[in-house]
Amino acid sequence: MKKIILASKSIDRIEILKRAGIPFETFITNIDEEKYKTRILNTVELVQELAKAKAIFAKNKLLNNNLDAIIIAADTIVDLDGEIIGKAHHEKEAFNILRKLMGKTHKLITGITITETKNPKIIVDSDTTIVEFLELSDEEIWDYIKTNEWKERAGAYSIKDTASLFISKINGSSSNVIGLPMHKIYEILKKEFGLNLFQIKRI
């Protein structure tokens, strides 16, 4: 079986594939995300372009090693009434992001790109999940920030951990909120690349 490469350093995405028993290796990409954010205003287009850039970066590097592999890349952002919210860089920024999201509904959008090192085919897609937060006090937000779950996560929260205490509603894929819409990845791999994840050797 071809190797599966996850072009991401996201802890959450890595854990999703591990829990599904899918054998894979990680490849960290280095692209300038800010240049995309300054020229693309549509949130869906933005995450798709970022995921595509990561996949192409990984593909070009892995081709140099003559590796035959399937590459999965993804990027996730939060959309609050059209405002793009990414990752917080420090605690104060995490607080401001969470304060803004409290008591409101936002979209969590993940762009995905799947390709193969020795195949020109590139499939780009996205998935959107609607998430609603309870209203927390400033003190409660700071208590959450102390967990450090906000680090390296779009919207400064992780649905699978302590943030579940203040998430009141989810409409859509729960795996998408964690960073990978697994139902779409399964369908794309099966239909476009002939790989059925149910039939691979589990780990």
Tell me the major beta sheet. Answer: 7 strands, mixed
Strand content: 25-35%
* Main structural class: alpha/beta
Write down the domain tally: 1
The quaternary structure here is single chain
| Whole-number mean pLDDT | 92
Radius of gyration: 17 Å
- CATH class, named Alpha Beta
Shape: globular
In which range does the helix fraction lie?
A: 25-40%
Order of helices and strands: EHEHHEEHEEHEHH
Number of H/I helices:
7
CATH fold naming = Maf protein
How would you portray this structure in words?
By secondary structure, the protein is of the alpha/beta class. The chain has one domain: Maf protein, CATH 3.90.950.10. It is 36% helix and 27% strand. Strands 1, 2, 3, 4, 5, 6 and 7 form a seven-stranded mixed beta sheet that branches. Strand 1, helix 1 and strand 2 form a beta-alpha-beta unit.
In brief:
The chain is of the alpha/beta class and 203 residues long. 36% of the residues lie in helices and 27% in strands. It has a single domain, classed as Maf protein.
Helix and strand layout, with pairings?
Layout lengths: L2 E5 L3 H9 L5 E2 L6 H7 L3 H21 L5 E12 L2 E3 L5 H11 L3 E12 L2 E15 L4 H8 L21 E5 L2 H5 L3 H12 L10
Parallel strand pairs: 1-2, 1-3
Antiparallel strand pairs: 3-4, 3-5, 5-6, 6-7
Helix pairs in contact: 4-5
List its traits.
single chain; 7 strands; seven-stranded mixed beta sheet; globular; 7 helices; 203 residues; alpha/beta; Maf protein
